Amino acid sequence: xxxxxxxSGLGGLGVGLRIIDALPDYDYVYLGDTQRVPYGNRSQESIxxxxxxxxxxxxxxxxxxxxxxxxTASAEALRRLQQEHLPTHYPERRVLGVxxxxxxxxxxxxxxxxxxxxxxSVDSGAWPREIHRVAPDRKVYQQAAPLLVPLVENDGxxxxxxxxxxxxxxxxxxxxxxxxxxxxxxxxxxEQAQQLAPGVNVISPEELVPxxxxxxxxxxxxxxxxxxxxxxxxxxxxxxxxxxxGLAQRLTGRALTFSRVEL
Length: 263
Ligand code: DGL
Fold this sequence. Notes:
By secondary structure, this protein is an alpha/beta fold. It is 47% helix and 19% strand. The protein contains 13 helices and ten strands. It has a six-stranded parallel beta sheet, sandwiched between helices. It has a four-stranded parallel beta sheet with strand order 6-5-7-8, with helices on both faces. The two termini are 20 Å apart. Bound molecules: D-glutamic acid (DGL). D-glutamic acid binds next to helix 3.
């Protein structure tokens, strides 16, 4: 059986390709819900429903384990999927998120932690909850940064600096020592974030999620033994245009072949 990687759109390719490169033997299906991106400004109910439909689709494609590369889906839908949906519909399959590994690393490395994320992720309270689960004494300051996703998607990198700076100032005013880039798209702004926040430890999920997945696979032989190792990759999108293909190439530096699918 395969490993599924899900994102609301194309930003998840950043973490998805790092996983594939780090653990290349397995069979992968990447699904980006480009028809309904962005998720970040939507209600919790919509994010849950969209994520559940995408997860069900990936299970139908033969995935045993799914990584929610999307931080918003990890924040708003993962717990409910694990607690309500999987036990009744797919008791033997697993869904993991990117938020918990990043929150755990932030909690272990920082004392005053800033989180830059989508509105949905901030409103969910998942970042402070998961950081405080590991280290209750940490100070956590969140900042929603809704303008950054459209800038990345529209190749607007030259306009990022003043907007990113505006989002970072309240966090820097709190004296943060650690900054979590809590959204798939922000990892493409890592260097700019580091320049605007000198001396702050910038945590970017794509750097730690592959190790965290490798660790999970080591600890769960009952899952790992059922994963096929045929070295295949499929990249599926719910909407497909030339612009999406161009964006994926700009973001990843790779020419990937996509297929359009209906959920
Ligand atoms: N993938 C989303 C995330 O990581 C960002 C894009 C969106 O809002 O859908 O939070």
